[in-house]
Write a structure and sequence with these properties.
The chain has one domain: 2-Layer Sandwich (Alpha-Beta Plaits), CATH 3.30.70.100. The chain is α+β, with helices and mostly antiparallel strands.
Length: 117
């Protein structure tokens, strides 16, 4: 079964273009090192009638957008190998002059796939 890294984070809407540029570079690096799929998505339909909405979960502030992202690997071992290579990639050694989001409000983790159709 596949392995997935999932991310949810708030990004100031005014910074979405900068975030998208950064995500494109990271996504390209990921794919070149063997990631099976890489997706970055911005919230569009977040008013839910049951459960906790992403804006509530993130304590979204006025002028912020929700980003939901996921990265697909063959397995957890594949993720470990690929991430080691990604972290050594020279294109990621120079951080942006200013991050387009607050890293302390990002939530992420690795997930074992339990259903894949």
């Amino acid at each position: 079964m596949a392995y997935v890294d999932g991310f949810v984070l708030p990004v100031p809407t005014k910074n979405l273009a900068a975030y998208k540029r950064m995500a494109r570079v990271f996504g390209k690096v990921c794919r070149e090192h063997g990631v099976l799929a890489y997706h970055e998505c911005v919230g569009d339909d977040l008013k839910v009638k049951m459960g906790i909405s992403f804006p509530t979960l993130l304590k979204l502030k006025k002028g912020e957008s929700v980003i939901f992202a996921w990265v697909l690997y063959k397995s957890k071992a594949h993720r470990t190998k690929v991430m080691a290579a990604i972290m050594k990639d020279a294109r990621l050694k120079t951080p942006p002059k200013s991050m387009p989001f607050d890293c302390n409000r990002m939530s992420w983790g690795g997930f074992k796939s339990i259903v894949s159709i």
